[in-house]
Design brief:
Elements (H helix, E strand, L loop, with lengths): L1 H34 L2 H14 L2 E9 L4 E10 L8 E10 L2 H7 L4 E7 L2 E5 L7 H8 L18 E12 L5 E15 L2 E7 L4 E8 L6 E7 L2 H9 L7 E11 L2 E12 L3 E11 L3 E13 L2 E16 L4 E11 L2 E10 L7 E10 L13 E13 L10 E14 L2 E12 L3 E11 L2 E12 L2 E14 H7 L8 E13 L3 E14 L4 H9 L12 E10 L2 E11 L2 E9 L10 E8 L11 H11 L3 E8 L4 E6 L5 H12 L1 H4 L2
Parallel strand pairs: 4-6, 5-6
Antiparallel strand pairs: 1-2, 2-3, 3-4, 3-5, 6-7, 7-8, 8-9, 9-10, 10-11, 11-12, 12-13, 13-14, 14-15, 15-16, 16-17, 17-18, 18-19, 19-20, 20-21, 21-22, 22-23, 23-24, 24-25, 25-26, 26-27, 27-28, 28-29, 29-30, 30-31, 31-32
Helix pairs in contact: 8-9
Length: about 650
Amino acid sequence: MKKTQKSNWKKWQRRLILAVCLLALMVLGLHSLLKSDLPRVGLLRILTTKFKLETSIKTLQVNWNGTTRIRNLQVIQSQYPLPLVTVEDLTMSHTALIRMLLTRQFNLNTLTVTGPHLNIQQAQSGVWNIQALAEAIPASTGSRHEGPSPLALPDITLDRVELTITDAIGTVVRFENSAFKGRARAPKTWTFSGNLGQGLQLEGDIALDPALSHSVRLKYTDLDSLVNSHVKADLNNFTLEGHWRGRMEASGLCGTLRLDRASADTFSSQGEVDIEANLQDVKASVKGLTCSLTADPNHPVTLESGQIRWQREENRLSMDKAFVTGFGGRLTVQATLPVANPLEMEAVLTLSDLDLARLPRLFPLIEGLHGKAFGTLKTHITLPEEKALEPLRITLALDLQEGRFKQAQIRSIQATGYVGPQRWLVDQSHIALLNGNLHFWIRSTQHADERLTYVNTDFNDIDLKQALQTLEVDTKKAVGKASGKGMMVTGSKSGMTGVLDITVKEADLLNTLVIGTLYNALSLNLLNSKAPTGQGRARLTLEQNTLRLTEFEYFNRGIEVRGTGSAQDISLGDMTPIQGTVMASSRPLKGLKLPGISDLDQLLTSLQKGTATVTIENTLKDPKVSVVPFAQVQGIMKQILWIQLKPSNKKR
């Protein structure tokens, strides 16, 4: 019995020693295998046979638990000139080594990549390399939860990504310093999140089918510098949030972009656009794009429909059959704009039913504008044989229904202008307003480091009552017709200078503050005259911020009025300080020619009993008019009469 037990024990000892030896040999074998080049060769064979990829690896380290680290990986598709991807460092977890060797199955679970450079390329046939990769994946795949499958997608983490997109004709677009995280949601679908450099945040899903169908929620938080550098705009805090659903086709990227919010300090927008894009061409069909301006949020402007196209190689933006509604009206746009050279813009804008009363919400300076506007604005590239003033001609023709600015009636506006690299100008213009007509010419030119603008104008038969009421002057029943001409020069450094000559006819100014005070001082009661017969003239000069009334003469019903004045620092608006002196006298001054200063002294002596004099002080908003004795202003009046009555002035 004891011999039998002893024999069994020795038998088990031999088996145990054999098992230990076999285990040791297996460990040594696996260790030798890991130290050899077989894992690298095996992985390259899998990538080549399963995905039709040519792959090179400098170093590969494999651990027992199924962790592999790869340095300097390069993956090549033979039909494309650049590698699909190059990687500095890649770590992946996969099927344990023993199981992989016994079953020859390889299931990749996670992939962490640092410093990858992905080249998305288009062949001459139009097929993109990522489409070719997707087509190489067999249609039938297993689930990660049903057992290991060589085609199950891994979870991916990408850091310091560089993306280069190259189309069939060699146009290149690059993105740098991007990062992504992808999680396998189904055998052929990733759910991902990350950023594509310059503030673009993305999250969504992508399917590895031949069309690479995908859905992306996006948020772009740093669009200021990108947009301003391309279109020379001045946008601040420009952000974009939306949802993109698309697919990859031979023609490029296609899909629908829904803008949940695109906004800057000055506007916010939302809508939906169908887009077809490649590196050379972006086409957009607008289904409805609404823009609300910060200054007027309750009255959005809507681009109802239209075809928009951007040709990247020519850097040309075009808009075809675009219909815009807003401000109570409708705008039709047909335009082509070379972004790099706006002077070659061709555009036709047709406007109808624009409610002018809504515009002051955007431009407060035109507060008081009312009416409906109809018309067209056209741009045209001039030809050498036209001998045009500048390369781009702009014509504007507007008709207004019940149009007015405050009390000034406006019937129509017509203008032709030219724009060039160094200057712009308005060559012809006509505005029917205030029951009269206004013409002006403008030329603005860049001289070295200063821009100078020259303005010339003439007007005729302007309704004086409407004009004064528009300027918010309390005129009561003042009437008349004004005509004149003027010029002004403004410089970005040198300031403003100008002169304006005005004549009035059929005028009655007895109800104005200054003229009325003078007539009352003379105890005249001429308010019941049936027809206004007053005539007059004035000259205004502007230098820097000082406006001077250098000459003023008005004659009505036997009384002649003369005076001078000034307004200091007109930049203060209503609070501008003013001062002036005005004298009224009977007929003796009319038609007088003064040969010398002695005659002027005699005239002043004879006028003292038949004159009235007032001074004007305080501000434009609240002028103070005071009657003063003639003797107190005799020196001033001598200067006025000598300047205004000497023969050289009378001939002007």
